[in-house]
Amino acid sequence: MKLGVCYYPEHWPENVWVDDARRMAEMGLSRVRIGEFAWSRIEPEPGRYDWGWLDRAIETLHRQGLGIILGTPTATPPKWLVDRMPDMVALDEDGRPRGFGSRRHYCFSHQGYQAECDRIVMALAERYGEHPGIVAWQTDNEYGCHDSAVSYSPAAAEAFRYWLANRYETIGALNEAWGNVFWSMEYRTFAEIDLPNLTVTEANPAHWLDFRRFSSDQVVRFNRRQANILRACSPGRDIIHNFMGFFTQFDHHAVGADLDVASWDSYPLGFLEQFWFSEEEKRSYLRQGHPDIAAFHHDLYRGCQKHGRWSVMEQQPGPVNWARFNPAPLPGMVRLWTLEAMAHGAEMVSYFRWRQFPKAQEQMHAGLLRPDSVEDVGGGEARQAAADIAAIGDAGPPPKSVALLFDYAGDWVTQIQPQGRGFSALRMAFDYYSALRQCGFDVDIISPQADFAGYRMLIIPCCPIIGADVVERLRAFDGPVLIGPRSGSKTTNLSIPAELAPGGLQQLIPLKVTRVESLRDGVEEQGEGFAISRWLEHVESNLEPEIRLSNGRGIVWREGSVRYLAGHLDAALLRDVIGLMAGDADMVVEDLPSGVRTRRAGMLRFAFNYGTQAQQLSVPEGAELLLGSARIEAAGVTVWRE
Amino acid sequence: MKLGVCYYPEHWPENVWVDDARRMAEMGLSRVRIGEFAWSRIEPEPGRYDWGWLDRAIETLHRQGLGIILGTPTATPPKWLVDRMPDMVALDEDGRPRGFGSRRHYCFSHQGYQAECDRIVMALAERYGEHPGIVAWQTDNEYGCHDSAVSYSPAAAEAFRYWLANRYETIGALNEAWGNVFWSMEYRTFAEIDLPNLTVTEANPAHWLDFRRFSSDQVVRFNRRQANILRACSPGRDIIHNFMGFFTQFDHHAVGADLDVASWDSYPLGFLEQFWFSEEEKRSYLRQGHPDIAAFHHDLYRGCQKHGRWSVMEQQPGPVNWARFNPAPLPGMVRLWTLEAMAHGAEMVSYFRWRQFPKAQEQMHAGLLRPDSVEDVGGGEARQAAADIAAIGDAGPPPKSVALLFDYAGDWVTQIQPQGRGFSALRMAFDYYSALRQCGFDVDIISPQADFAGYRMLIIPCCPIIGADVVERLRAFDGPVLIGPRSGSKTTNLSIPAELAPGGLQQLIPLKVTRVESLRDGVEEQGEGFAISRWLEHVESNLEPEIRLSNGRGIVWREGSVRYLAGHLDAALLRDVIGLMAGDADMVVEDLPSGVRTRRAGMLRFAFNYGTQAQQLSVPEGAELLLGSARIEAAGVTVWRE
Amino acid sequence: MKLGVCYYPEHWPENVWVDDARRMAEMGLSRVRIGEFAWSRIEPEPGRYDWGWLDRAIETLHRQGLGIILGTPTATPPKWLVDRMPDMVALDEDGRPRGFGSRRHYCFSHQGYQAECDRIVMALAERYGEHPGIVAWQTDNEYGCHDSAVSYSPAAAEAFRYWLANRYETIGALNEAWGNVFWSMEYRTFAEIDLPNLTVTEANPAHWLDFRRFSSDQVVRFNRRQANILRACSPGRDIIHNFMGFFTQFDHHAVGADLDVASWDSYPLGFLEQFWFSEEEKRSYLRQGHPDIAAFHHDLYRGCQKHGRWSVMEQQPGPVNWARFNPAPLPGMVRLWTLEAMAHGAEMVSYFRWRQFPKAQEQMHAGLLRPDSVEDVGGGEARQAAADIAAIGDAGPPPKSVALLFDYAGDWVTQIQPQGRGFSALRMAFDYYSALRQCGFDVDIISPQADFAGYRMLIIPCCPIIGADVVERLRAFDGPVLIGPRSGSKTTNLSIPAELAPGGLQQLIPLKVTRVESLRDGVEEQGEGFAISRWLEHVESNLEPEIRLSNGRGIVWREGSVRYLAGHLDAALLRDVIGLMAGDADMVVEDLPSGVRTRRAGMLRFAFNYGTQAQQLSVPEGAELLLGSARIEAAGVTVWRE
Ligand SMILES: [Zn+2]
Ligand SMILES: [Zn+2]
Ligand SMILES: [Zn+2]
């Protein structure tokens, strides 16, 4: 695995570039990402390009042997461009223009802006496409960051109408699909359709779902235009985009289909603070991040590229500036995160950023160097990680073991129609992932469209929309299948299937969900040694339940090796059910120490201690230790060959 | 009492209508409400009516002996109409148009839309007014739902100025009444007056109160226009509107004056979740609703029709979709709610809806049938309720016992000027109502304008504005009167009366409120065995307090049979005070088991168990049991003849 | 010290004025503020002045010997003026016009409105400037109340561009200062610059800081225009403005430079409720206010006038209307607050208001009289305070003891860039102030620009921007200096200094802050007998820490008599550190009873009991008691000559 760093030569005097490059190489880095926010320097005035500084920066880095990932600067169009086409900005859900002064101030549907992007990408690609220093391209930056994948602009409305006409062909078909007879929402022409925001009460969920699909498609199309230009002008270079954490505003499988390498930006501490984790988890993992945050995304984004090629484009190197609270990583965590990416098969981990920039929005975001150019803690840990990587050698391919199905449209469904506040298919996927990993399993998070062959177990935490083709392939799967609540509960157009939930999955297990209940926080339905909360389904079936609530209601249903969960299980019961399935699959459930996680890579097994206490690992007798020891310290990493 | 159901033939293929109608009748239903959201089907294009389907639907239902309540479709104007007059939509408090895509997207003050409503109502009334199947009309649907009774549109501003000119005649009178000299808010002409939203800090409370009065009057006027057309064209049919729960955006007494039957939409579980109830209440009554929610509205809306004619137009039949959390009713609750409405004198309970519609906004809202047409739990309970109603026979007239005064303008006052966060006249009314009912009393909730004759006790939880005529009638009342805090504290124009609070009520009890305190949550003033929270008044009087705080300050004041409460009493003290009054009135206070409520109807007494445990009732010796037994199960109903 | 009252003759019939004036004098008041909201009465129509009523009101008050403070009415422009120039209103951060209907509906940058203000102020000044009854002028009222110091209007944008051009001269200098190369935010001309609101994610913090500076300067300029007119036309009268509590939207030192007397509006109960105090503090001090709220502002605003002249223009006399909850002051508190102002050197305390006005927005705000003209509790306490003031006699000058540095721009920095939610330089200043006062110290809160001579100790709780000149003067200071976290951490343009934090302060103590951590609520770093929360800095230094965390990390650093705090200390450690410094300065730390605070004035010492229990004071042997006794009751005041 290679190490890299994000670098902004335009922020620093030219005379430090060469020293920076030298220090990067010396630290063990071999990749450097540049350029993705530099439009105002590349084209300071309309049509006047200033290539000189970039030529020199690329040359300087290249001379130190660094492979350059060049970003297209389309996430930050300069002010002169916005002033020329003021309607290029997105409108927010309240209808307010999202103005210039930070970044991502564009609407994916604005044709004028798309043309400008073609132009600047083409200019870059033509100039540097065949430069030997350029090893890859990054398209734009963090599509959708700051809620920017969705826009309520006139341009979006226009494009949405066109998209709908394409999808439904006749307005009657759309009215029928959405059920617009309800509340007299019927349209006579596609031109009558507005965006679903600013309605009196909630808009039709089918209207929302199509708008979310459309918005995702606009991102895919936007990315594809850049990818096509870059491929044409820069043969042999990887096309990469950097995804974000816990972010589902567009279909990453679809964007990933146009990429050579999927990458993501890993900020475990910031994500812990900003997402759904409990107060207790936020305190316990304050300086480490929840032990499954990084791995979840590694395994998710690996599944977004057809050959499983993926990287970490931005790795948190110290405190960041953007969470509500911003503590420093525990010493060792930057190295741990780096090696964990390796364990999951990353091609590269690139730190964000080289040197903390003392100005502007991210001045409180640490780098590998301090603003005064002294090496910061993260720099030292990167150096150590480079040595460790060399010591470990090649990690071997990721194993195929457990597949967990996650579908972006499914998450849109639960966002649009949570039915119980906070219900989230993404969170369900994370919870199931975490439970599996605590059992010592290696998990691939895959699209329902992906190939199931080779997996020993399939887990569907919550996929509301399951196509007939997927049902077919699930039936063909030879191994335990776990189906979580709400799976199969909706048709493509977000309606209830004629045969009720779980829809086509009834071909796997003969039961019907006749009623659902969402339960307020603090309400639990008790079973023996477990409790159900948040979500409870009433099931009609000739089957006998495998596990019941104390009141007799079935909660786990089984037909052969297929199980259906009629509620949101607590961790204890989820672990039990995984244990039952593992038994079916001849897999051994481990009981990892608290805060410890592991990952296999080829013949290697990596262990990571996210806790603040040392723990004892069960390293098999005779295993060859490549790193660390069976006693694993806080923030420690142990690697052995099995 | 009749049972009915809300039905949407336009949602289903015509070939199922006849079977649906047959099954309704078979279930014990004799009423069916239709049509209230069907404008886009009745008039698919401007001026082109399509009556065929509706003719056939009415005929099909009629043939099964079902009496039809036909709704006017004005809550859901079709898109073509909005596109023709885009300014017909309301503006929200932030000034944003409330767009098409759900329902209620109209401003009550828009004259063009009013004319369109006249036209469509006239068309319906002329076609079906004398059809023998039509037994009643519902005007529009849930006026004000989704905050829609109030609009900040130019049309509203214009109408408001006209309304003010009518009320005050001269701008000087308005300036004087509002106290506009304060902060130089004086106007020179009515044309200068804006709506009270979007001011720098809060607008003049008198400005707000008049705007709320105006907004309410616009609803009254809107409803009256429809009622007049329907009365003219459809003689002998009842005019009904369906009110909502805990909703005060317009004066329901005033709208009720134009109705033959007041009805409301009863969703006990949704209301429990969405309103002010404590976490503990929300958990205890999770699947039953708070035991006073349904009854409170029964007794409130009965008082909104001059002959006490009322119905439940929509009865929750299972889980709904619109609360934060949506659990299922405890088995038996749908039947319990039905019979409780009977006990309170309803003419009809109509379930919402016949069959769960698998598409659009309410697809997660249960019906009597599942989406697959199988009878759902609620269907079975409706069938049982029909049998029970037949078994009980005629219930006899509601008793006149305790009258609780509630005034919509009073609630607007506490909304506009809570003085302590969360203070609400509506909630005060509910709390007092609940306390009275736990004593076993039957309560009528009446307007201060209603006749007090025949009542044994009068309760005024919180009526800030009390007219001189009401004071006069209160003085003439011969029985205990309880006056809660803030009553009489404001003039008609929301100013402090010259004689201070309780204003004219000082003619009933000689005391003055010289100062008020609102107390933050968690702060209590202690008395012996009770505590005061939220609100505390300093009273000046020559009377001796009847009950004092531990610090000596008077909290309950008495003059003859009139009592004044100088604060927000806890449940214990409120019960004590009711006990004192009951003693004065020779009424017996009962101590009902937890979760149990009762209601008398003629010679019958109904008991309802909202708890999750069985309870023992004190059924008098020799009473004839018509339903259930003295041991009342969870969700149980017992009825006896006294 | 004089007592006064705020009076609105325009609210009352003329025939009560003379009686009101007589009663004021009889109560012991000698000052009366009038006129500040009376524009619509002074100029009821454009250009038509109505002076008659004001002539008579002034004459009536003057005849009773009351010195009149006449307010300019520019906080409440009348409706006709707004209708003539609708763009004079401010726009809020969302871009919505802040409409007419309350007060402060103007944008400080609107030139048309400024001209109107010149005109009305000139008219008033010319008419009454030399009237013998006029002793002072109040400019406008509470600049910035209701967030009104900041406007996002086109007028503000235009003025901001001009302001920036003045400050930076070239656009290149601005781009460089702000670091606009980051995210391609570079501008080509000043005309390209927008206001920093409504950006996609946060705008450049340097952009925000300049906008805050600009907005503050607009207030300064606005005030200066009025002051200049008044000075020219009304020689010998004091120019006053009334500041608010915990309010930092403009630089009060800068506005104060144009005033003869700084004054503020003291509402201890409302401020307790609305600001950051804990639930426990809000309950403990419910009817008293936190014991440091009033004193903090006394000592702050005294420092805002170059000769230390200051007053309380509005003193809470009873419950107010504007906090979430509005309890009544404990009996005695109105007197206590009055005498505390005297102890801190006020020239006047003026109560708000004479008589509770029964109409409009503040009808629930108590006065000295009730709406029915009966003297209210506050009236009696004012009368008592007048007697006490006479008994005490002249208090002597404020002592120079401890200086606490507070800088408005520093507070803007922590608002713009809290880095940990809720971090606030203002709150830091308050916390340190409270700790010092609990030690029995007398504190001056001063600008870093003020003279340090004569102080025995300097405290810098949190001043992120410290100029080189200040560093120079700090180096010259001969006494203990305490530097709190984040001090010196930013350059003038809100970037990280080249030498890292604490920037130039490294000349006082040789250490560098290499990393900062903000910690979520509930997270603590333990030391022996203390804990650090919220904020923790990593320090690099050759010094040995004076105090360490249990994990060895230095938390208090010392070089000679200069100390640096590398985190947010709890009260225990802060008190210890103050003790260490006091030792260096030969000052004695006292341990005042809970809820008790003291203040020295000349040879007098005042003690105030904010608790609800009586306490025993350590009055020195032989001290002469001028008021109260060593046993100080709840809400009690004791004064002795030392
Ligand atoms: Zn981002
Ligand atoms: Zn509704
Ligand atoms: Zn104010």
UniProtKB/TrEMBL annotation, chains A, B, C:
Annotated ranges, domain Beta-galactosidase trimerisation: 401-586
**Which N-terminal residues, if any, form the signal peptide?**
none
Q: Which domain of life is it from?
A: Bacteria
Span of domain Beta-galactosidase C-terminal: 595-642
Q: What class of enzyme is it?
A: hydrolase
Q: Which residues form the Glycoside hydrolase family 42 N-terminal domain?
A: 6-389
Q: Which family does it belong to?
A: Belongs to the glycosyl hydrolase 42 family.
The protein's name is: Beta-galactosidase
- Organism, as annotated: Sphingorhabdus buctiana
Taxonomic placement: Bacteria, Pseudomonadati, Pseudomonadota, Alphaproteobacteria, Sphingomonadales
